[in-house]
Amino acid sequence: MNNVVPVSNDISAAIANAPIAPVISENDILKFFNLDRENIQDFSITHAKDGIAIHVRLNSKPHICPVCLQKSQKVKDYVPKRITHSILNGQKCYILYDARRYQCPHCRKIFYENNPFSIGGQRVSITTVYNILKDLKEPTETFTSVAKRHNVSKTTAVNIFDKNIHVSRRPLPECLGIDEVYAFKSDHSQYVCVLVDCATQQVVDILPSRKKDYLIKYFELIPEEERRNVKYCSFDMWQTYRIVSKQVFPEVTCMLDRFHVVQELNRCVNRVRIETQNKYYSTIKKLKKKDESELTYNERLELDNAQKHYYVLKKFNWLLTSNAGDAKIADPNIEKKYNKTLKGYYNYYDLYDYMIADDPDLDIAYCLKYDMNEFYRKCTYKNAAQKLDELIIEFRTCQIESMSKFANTLVRWKPEIINSFIIIKSTGKRMNTAIVENRNKTIKLIKHSSNGYQNWERFRNRVLLCLNSDELININFTEGRRY
Asked: How confident is the model at residue 20 (pLDDT cuts 50, 70, 90)?
């Protein structure tokens, strides 16, 4: 190296005063910029108004002509280039590089020398490109936040992503989970269909529509031999998924996810609660139309009782639908706490009794819901069919309309509910779409963080890059659009 100018006084002082050992050497600084001492003609670091400037000129050496493949060492001229470099966090940094141009003596072709900073004529360093793509693997990051951190424009960050990230569909797995999430609005659909390998928890692909015709066309483009790999398919109560699965997967066993069955049942229980709550609300509304002085003693008692029941049904409705509520209702020994509205000491066991005191429909609805939970908790594949038939009869004979109608749901999805008790050999567990719901949450986070996407390919690539931890970042070293 002919001339290596020492780094600026500020940086030298920071290095000298840093409580680390050994002290950072000049060679270490060169490595930050992917440089070797023997390849540098000039190198210096200076402060400028808009950041730290790295001045570099490389040594001249023979280059191969890209046209005739002959060696050339004839220098035509130098072209100054400014390359953004994000090696320093929180401080703008750029490389002022005197790019040497060679001229081939055989074919007269003029071409640039190879450099360790950037690809072709790009104005952003390879290190910056990699750091931007690495940051975009985090679902909470946006193109704007990443661009600001690495001192490039948002458009540059988007162009870097579009050029380098193209995620392919993964092979269809043995255990396929299908679900949808409201994350991308297009002319064809408002839902994104998510395909997940429930065994490895990796996302196979995401699709811009969950409609039957689209899904059938998508899967039929995949070779039948690969589609035969799908042995089990779990989904929610969207009828299209059952139709498509049976049509495109020759050897599939369809399963209905437990979460969605229980969720539908909780809606039925909640309707019973709301009907009971509305009865008390009607009483409150009717009695409050009168002046308080006009109310009789019995009417005041009735109003007070209605207000308390309405309060309990409104505030503690979760006791009827959540699994946490099941445990707390079952234990009468939980510590009691004073309730100002009810003017007494109550625990969750007492509050449940208060709910059903004047309306046994709530008690019946909750008991049916509890029986359904016990069905999923205790049954096996061998006795699931028999127990499910008993449950159907139990719901069918119920006098509560909304609970009785739930029997139709159980009948309609009976084979898929029974199949959900199958133990998958490869995992040793029952199959469900819990992992799909988890991935849906991340997809929503990506959408909300960026205030939505309008480009489907960009959205798809971003989601797959974020969700699959083993998805590698491959930088495209071919010349193309500048950024």
From this structure: very low
How buried is 443 (Cβ within 10 angstroms: 0-12 exposed, 13-18 middle, 19+ buried)? buried
Higher pLDDT, 186 or 462: 462
**pLDDT 10s digits, 164-183:** 899 999 999 999 999 999 88
Gap between the Cα atoms of 364 and 369, Å rounded: 9
Backbone φ and ψ of 345, nearest 5°: -95, 125
Mean pLDDT, to the nearest integer, of 37-60?
78
CB of 96 within 8 A of CB of 47? no
Contact status, residue 196 vs residue 173, Cβ threshold 8 Å: no
* 8 A C-beta contact, residue 273 and residue 266: no
Going by C-beta distance under 8 Å and a sequence separation of 6 or more, which residues neighbour residue 99? Answer: 78, 79, 80, 81, 112, 113, 115
> How far apart (Å, rounded) are the C-alpha atoms in residues 287 and 303?
7
With residues binned 3-state (H G I as helix, E B as strand, rest as coil), the percentages for the chain, rounded to 5, are: 45, 20, 35
Q: What is the residue whose two structure tokens read 């029952």? A: 430
Residues in the chain, overall count: 483
Q: How far apart are the first and last CA of the chain?
A: 31
pLDDT digits (tens, 9 = 90+) for 382-435: 999 999 999 999 999 999 998 999 999 999 999 999 999 999 988 889 998 888
Band of residue 48 on the pLDDT scale cut at 50, 70, 90: confident
Over the Cα atoms of the chain, what is R_g?
Answer: 34
Query: What are the backbone dihedrals phi and psi of residue 103, each rounded to the nearest 5 degrees, phi first?
Result: -125, 125
∠ at Cα 222 (221, 224), nearest 5°? 115
